[in-house]
């Protein structure tokens, strides 16, 4: 078991990779500041990212003065019932309130925890009466729902710092 591996708590039978994909895509909702998208263009199965280029959200991110964001590249390994992930860092520059993303100069890939917020900004998402989530643009805000969904599917989350997914 790797340093970044999270094993599911239960020992129930693992779901298929298609069922896991469906479960992860089910985390998407309009009120969440992140999204999970197909990763075909990046030669991975899925990508989790902040909705920084979404017109509905970029004003929120702009006000927080984010200078970097992460995208989580994900590959499903059905044989091992694990989701292999790798974080990719992007620099953000703002032009007239619109984001311009470029791969960070350091070209970081691996596993990272980053907290980005400006002037004590915290944004909330109301899911149901009395249930509020606060976002500080912490990479764990992206990773935690994915890890919980995987555990419910009988899969594990494995962060890959070096090498191929």
Structure description:
This protein has one domain (5-156). 18% of the residues lie in helices and 36% in strands. It has three helices and ten strands. Residues 114-123 and 127-133 have low confidence and may be disordered. The chain is α+β, with helices and mostly antiparallel strands. The protein is elongated. Strands 1, 2, 3, 4, 5, 6, 7 and 10 form an eight-stranded mixed β-sheet that branches. Strands 8-9 form a two-stranded antiparallel sheet. Helix 1 crosses helix 3 (139-153).
Large-scale geometry: elongated
Instruction: Report the order of strands and helices.
Output: EHEEHEEEEEEHE
Distance between the termini: 16 Å
How much of the polypeptide forms β-strand, as a percent range?
A: 35-45%
Radius of gyration: 16 Å
Give a quick summary of the entry.
The chain has helices at 17-25, 58-63, 139-153; strands at 5-6, 34-38, 46-50, 68-77, 82-95, 98-103, 109-110, 123-128, 131-135, 156-159. It has 165 residues and is an alpha+beta fold.
């Amino acid at each position: 078991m790797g340093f970044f591996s999270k094993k599911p708590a239960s020992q129930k039978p693992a779901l298929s990779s298609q069922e896991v994909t469906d479960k992860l895509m089910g985390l998407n909702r309009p009120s969440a500041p992140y999204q999970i998208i197909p990763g075909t263009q990046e030669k991975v199965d899925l990508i989790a990212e902040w909705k920084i280029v979404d017109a509905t959200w970029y004003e929120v991110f702009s006000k927080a003065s984010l200078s970097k964001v992460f995208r989580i590249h994900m590959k499903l390994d059905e044989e091992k019932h694990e989701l292999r992930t790798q974080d990719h860092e992007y620099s953000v520059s703002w032009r007239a309130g619109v984001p311009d993303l470029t791969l960070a100069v350091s070209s970081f890939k691996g596993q990272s925890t980053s907290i980005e917020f400006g002037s004590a900004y915290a944004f909330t998402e109301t899911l149901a009466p009395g249930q509020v989530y606060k976002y500080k643009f912490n990479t764990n805000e992206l990773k935690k729902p994915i890890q919980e969904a995987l555990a419910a599917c009988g899969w594990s989350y494995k962060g890959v710092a070096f090498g191929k997914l």
